[in-house]
Automatic annotation (TrEMBL):
SUPFAM superfamilies: RING/U-box (SSF57850), TRAF domain-like (SSF49599). One of its GO terms (biological process) is regulation of canonical NF-kappaB signal transduction. The keyword Metal-binding applies. InterPro entries: Znf_RING (IPR001841), Znf_RING/FYVE/PHD (IPR013083), Znf_RING_CS (IPR017907), Znf_TRAF (IPR001293). Keywords: Coiled coil, Metal-binding, Zinc, Zinc-finger. It comes from Aptenodytes patagonicus. The gene is Rnf41. Gene3D superfamilies: Zinc/RING finger domain, C3HC4 (zinc finger) (3.30.40.10). A zinc finger (TRAF-type) spans 101-144. Residues 192-243 form a coiled coil. This is E3 ubiquitin-protein ligase NRDP1. GO terms for molecular function: zinc ion binding. Residues 101-144 form the TRAF-type domain. Transmembrane segments: none annotated. Residues 18-56 form the RING-type domain.
Length: 244
């Protein structure tokens, strides 16, 4: 749908009106036959038709093009009232800048920002409403530190709230202690397995060293025996030599 022609100040050229809704073009597109439409209007039309609503020439979405530049310039220069005119806004500005103004207009109807509140109020009155809104939140005046809604004032019990918080903290602490305990046990098990494995390796190395030591001692004894025998043979040879 286009912009309501009643909002515009002065004369609006017929060529700047949508051929479907007959309001001033909004986000315009142009067919090859040079008839112009609001984007939403022509897309909706082509869902059920395949021709131009003005001259019945065949058209397709792929054939639609942006408006000629001179027509866009004429369109953007049109002056119109803010949509919030009925609420008191007297702003008149160009079509090119109307969206920016209306996003910031003090007379725009906006929703209260408090969760649960369904009030729609003018932007300029929002601060005043927030100060008295029954869904506004604030810190408990009794010092418990809780944030409460005004609607819950009569139901708020500091002791009960703190007790609930304490129970939650206790439960959380127990969970953390259990997690830390399991983690430490897991680490100890891992270290124990590692130590057992290291012990087994060291034990094997000790046995290997003992075996090597035993072989070395056996070799030493064999050498000593061979040396004694060799000495005896030398002594015997020396005796024979003396006898001769």
């Amino acid at each position: 749908m286009g912009y309501d022609i009643e909002r515009f100040v002065g004369y609006v050229n017929e060529g700047l009106l949508c051929s479907i809704c007959r309001d001033v073009l909004e986000d315009p597109l142009q067919a090859p036959c040079e008839h112009a439409f609001c984007t939403a209007c022509i897309h909706g039309w082509l869902v059920h038709h395949s021709n131009c609503p003005e001259d019945r020439q065949m058209i397709d979405v792929s054939l639609l093009r942006p408006l000629y530049r001179y027509m866009r310039n004429d369109l953007n220069r049109l002056q119109l009232h803010c949509k919030n005119r009925e609420y008191g806004c007297e702003m008149v500005c160009s079509l090119e800048s109307i969206d920016r103004h209306e996003r910031e207009c003090e007379y725009s109807q906006i929703a209260c920002s408090n969760a649960g509140c369904t009030v729609q109020i003018e932007r300029r009155n929002l601060d005043g409403h927030l100060a008295v809104c029954e869904y506004r939140s604030r810190e408990c005046p009794n010092g418990c530190g809780y944030t409460i809604l005004s609607a819950e004032d009569t139901q708020h019990n500091c002791v009960a709230e703190l007790r609930t918080e304490l129970e939650l903290l206790r439960s959380e602490m127990i969970c953390r202690v259990e997690e830390a305990k399991h983690e430490m046990e897991s680490r100890l098990d891992s270290q124990r397995r590692h130590m057992v494995q290291k012990e087994s390796i060291l034990q094997n190395e000790i046995e290997e060293l003992k075996s090597q030591m035993s072989r070395m001692m056996s070799d030493v004894r064999s050498l000593m025996a061979a040396e004694r025998q060799h000495r005896q043979e030398l002594e015997q040879a020396e005796l024979e030599k003396r006898e001769l």
